Amino acid sequence: MKAVIFDMDGVIFNTEKLWQYAFIESNKIYNVNLTEEYRKTICGKSEELIREELKNILPNVDVNAYRDYMVDYVNNNVKNGNFEMKGGFVELINALKNKNYKLALATSSTKDRALMLFNRFSINPNDIFDAFVFAEDVGTKSKPDPFMFRLAASKIGVKEEESFVIEDSLNGIVAAYKGGFKPIMVIDLIEPDDFAKKNCYKIFNNLNEVIDII
Q: SS3 string of 138-205?
């Protein structure tokens, strides 16, 4: 194995809980009855793809306003520092760099938002990652489509089968597996389903546990 591709929300930062709360509040405000189970099905997808999907299932709702509320809520909390970095991330990065792994970040978030998260901890992501793929790079071809991870692999010059993908979302696991990568699920708010249990290389509870297999 030569590379590790990281998801961001729920893997590096515990920001998924912000999305969960924003989802609950926006449902109340816009009188939408979507469930937590549904929310889990869109985790990992790009904002563009989510809005396209919601316009089909909520024809009588102003989907842009509905989603704008969530995005603004999360971004305001990020700006106020109401989130934490996941334990073990720094240690895992150090261990990977010591073994000369190539590293990429592949996130369905925008570049500006990703930089805002890393800046909270005075971290320049260019000091960590060799390549980046953001929402702007994929449009609606986001997870569970493997395009995002394949693009990341091409940017760092490795083959899919030579790369681990660390994910917390089921859409991310599907994308990694379909793309020919070795998916590692680190559990955040979503429990592994049967597909993940069958097709993940490993499933862990935290990033510290990943260090033992590299």
A: CCCCCCCCCHHHHHHHHHHCCCHHHEEEEECCHHHHHHHHHCCCEEEEECCCCCCCHHHHHHCCEEEC
Report, as an integer, the average pLDDT of 69-79. Answer: 95
214 pLDDT exceeds 90? no
Max Cα-Cα span within the chain: 54
Segment (H or E) for 211: helix 208-211
10 Å CB burial of residue 62 (0-12, 13-18, 19+) is: exposed
What size, in residues, is the chain?
Answer: 214
pLDDT at position 140 is 87
Q: Are 185 and 204 in contact (CB under 8 A)?
A: yes
- Pure H helices in 3-124: 16-29, 36-42, 47-57, 63-79, 89-98, 111-119
